[in-house]
Amino acid sequence: MNTRIIPISLAISDKKQRERLVEMIAANPMARLVDDDAEEMGVLIYEPGESVDEDMPHIIHALESGQAEDVYLAGNVSDPEVLIRAMRSGIREYLKFPLEENDFRASLLRTAMRSSLESDEGEKGKLFTVLGCKSGQGTTSLAVNLACALNARQPGRTVLLDLRTPMGEVPYFLDLKHEYTWGDLVADITRLDATYLQSVIAEHESGLHVLPGPAHAERPDNHTLLMILEQLRSSYDYVVVDTSTPVEDDLPKEIELADSMLVTLQLSLPCLARVSRLADSIGSQDPDANRRMRLVANRVARNGSIGVPEAAEVLNRAITWSVPDDGETVLSAINQGTPLVLAFPKSPSAKAVQAIANELAPRPRKARKGFSLPFGSLFRKKGKGSDANDSLAGATL
């Protein structure tokens, strides 16, 4: 495992804030201060001043050439032109004065994460996100059974992430007792690595791994969720996410990063109208979304007033899969706390889910031997009594 300590160079004119940074670097096990005359630069923390117009071309060149691993702007930058120029040049971190230790730590973590992702040559796991146009569409049932169907190929190589808020229901579908949730990761995100992740994962008797959601919790912020999803993709062959309907004009990371997003719907005109708005909203934020979006007609009655072809015509979109109405069997499986594909594998609904799994992932993958971020061993999991404020903070450009 790579336990490289990130070198830090300072170009800070504010004496008090420079001293504060020196103290924070000395106290942080993943950072070290570089001498002013050293050849290496590492991460450059730069406070724009009167000479910013002269400095920026040299800083940008250092970043583009690789002389600087990363660049953080620091201070109280009020000139929007400086910020816009920094963003366009790949400078993504901004530390505002007075400096906060959590902000500095979070920026370092993101730098280490970006470095890890860029250097990771191994193939990442597939991410399948399941969502509905509204609640009550059978989204969680589909997510749970899809995850179980994928897991059956090689138990322990699939993980199910419950992102539904305010409270997910995945554990009820699996009769799963668990001690930790992704809330524990969020509270201590700076220590996220493969070992820490596995310590909070729950395991179903089938071998399916589950990361449940906390009760009545807000969603993780985008940076935190990105780290969790990328660590899951690095550790598993398949990641299935059960998530809530996204808010308009807010593209969640589990949708942005998904290899395929499965949108559940039922064949009623109000539901079709909601699906149309949802698909248009996602498509307007992500031009590639239409290629990755798969509509799943759920609970399709044999003699329904609206058929799948008619619904597809109304939506002007293909409905990729349909799951037949199998109410009594599905309800029985839920009440047993056993996934449908395990309790009644020969039922029409279970066979439909198996078909979806086969099309999403035609061949099982070989297990990989080790999974960890190169900076992971620098952190240790904190106990339940840890400071709740020691969480991801700081700004990115």
TrEMBL record:
Q: What domain of life?
A: Bacteria
Write out the entry's keywords from A to Z.
Kinase, Transferase
List the InterPro entries hit by this protein, alphabetically: P-loop_NTPase, ParA/MinD_ATPase
GO molecular-function annotation terms? kinase activity
**Protein name per UniProt:** Histidine kinase
Q: Which organism is it from?
A: Pseudodesulfovibrio indicus
